[in-house]
Amino acid sequence: MRASILCLPGDGIGPEVTQAALQVLGAVGAHFGHDFLFTEALIGGAALRRGEPALPPATLALARSADAILLGAVGDPAFDTSDSSRRPEAALLGLRRALGLFANLRPARVWPGLEDDGPLKADILRGTDLLVVRELTGGLYYGEPRGIESDGTAAVNTLRYSRHEIERIARVAFEWARRRRQRVTSVDKANVLEVSRLWRGTVTEVAADYPDVALEHMYVDACAMKLALAPASFDVILTENLFGDILSDEAGAVVGSLGLLPSASLGEGPGLFEPVHGSAPDIAGRSLANPVGAIASAAMLLDHLGLGAEARAVDAAIGATLQQGVRTADIRGNTKAATTREVAAAIVDRLRSVSPEGG
Questions:
Q1: pTM of the full predicted structure?
Q2: Which part of the chain has CATH 3.40.718.10?
Q3: Is-contact 251 261, C-beta < 8 A?
């Protein structure tokens, strides 16, 4: 296969974990005989520091023409007091909207050997393997009107969803449930919010087209509690933008570290693949960041390109490396903490031992 992959390292630890993921993708290309063309561009605070907008027009043009996009992280404390358009995070929101990436997939699972390293007891955590399907281009993050009043005495954000937006993200969740364990938990706040009542009703209607998939509705506060008490009880969690952002971060804490979590943003344009963690500027440049989320995002990228065997090989290499005890400080357990570069190198070594014919 030949594929064009745009790399957006971004801010903080983004360049480090992205480099790790690119090493793995390069090893996949060499080992399995694929030709990946990598291009790099600015985004977020890295672009703002160069006098560019957070999402430079040149970056967006490259994104539109790529087969897939690998993103590191956006976020820079230097711009925390800037207005919304001059914040690094505006780049990510703008990229999602421009490419029509409305479906965010955030898998969270317990890697073998890490059952005792999370905050929960091993018998509660064991078997956890869930997928958060988060609507990505609607809700409070995009709704209008929004802003802070000129005198600073009040602010407003608008929560809005159309039936079309709800229906299309619900179908993504049901289709993924068919590939997994055929259960969808739709999360809302229908006892308080009219938007959630429309959400619940629309999801129920969509469910009729998927009689093989079981559907349950759950309030967001109840879901947050159950994630901490019985995470293995979930298969696919379907929810709107804000709730999905919060719940998927909770899932990362439950399984041991946000650094382990990958994600994919899919829709009309090329897919965008990125680790769930933020830019973590306090540890940037020190080779302390966990690269597993970025490398697992690269595996999702491969799967999206139709390279399922290669994606499974990367996942297997991650699992073997973690079981071997090569882990960064956030999940080191009783082992000596490894650096970002050491974890990436160990995963590449494991990957090279895989038979190209067997995947």
A1: 0.91
A2: 1-102+260-359, 119-255
A3: yes
Short-list 196, 241, 188, 234, CA closest to 214: 234
Predicted local confidence at residue 146, as pLDDT: 92
Please tell me the class of the 119-255 domain: alpha beta
- Euclidean distance between CA atoms 176 and 157, whole angstroms: 31
Length of the chain: 359
All residues at 6 or more sequence positions from 306 whose CB lies less than 8 Å from its CB, including other chains: 1
Q: Confidence band (pLDDT; 50, 70, 90) for 256? A: confident
Higher-confidence position of 312 and 334: 312
CATH code of the domain made up of 1-102+260-359: 3.40.718.10
Instruction: Give yes or no for residue 152 having a pLDDT over 80.
Output: yes
Catalytic annotation, pick one of 11, 141, 161, 315:
141
Is 141 an annotated catalytic residue?
yes
Active site residue 11: no
**What is the tens place of the pLDDT at every residue in 62-108?**
999 999 999 999 999 999 877 777 899 999 989 998 999 999 999 99
DSSP conformation letters of 109-132: EPPTT-TTTSSS-HHHHTT-EEEE
Is the model's pLDDT at 141 over the cut of 70? yes
- Of 245, 303, 315, 330, catalytic: 245
Catalytic entry in 67, 129, 189, 219: 189
Does the annotation mark 235 as catalytic?
no
User: Contact, 198 vs 186, CB < 8 A?
Assistant: no
CA 184 to CA 198: how far, in whole Å? 17
End-to-end C-alpha distance for the chain, whole angstroms = 15
Report the amino acid identity of residue 61.
A
SS3 string of 56-104? CHHHHHHHHHCCEEEEEECCCHHHCCCCHHHCCHHHHHHHHHHHCCCEE
d(CA 235, CA 301): 21
Q: CA dihedral in degrees (298, 15, 36, 343; nearest 10)? A: -50
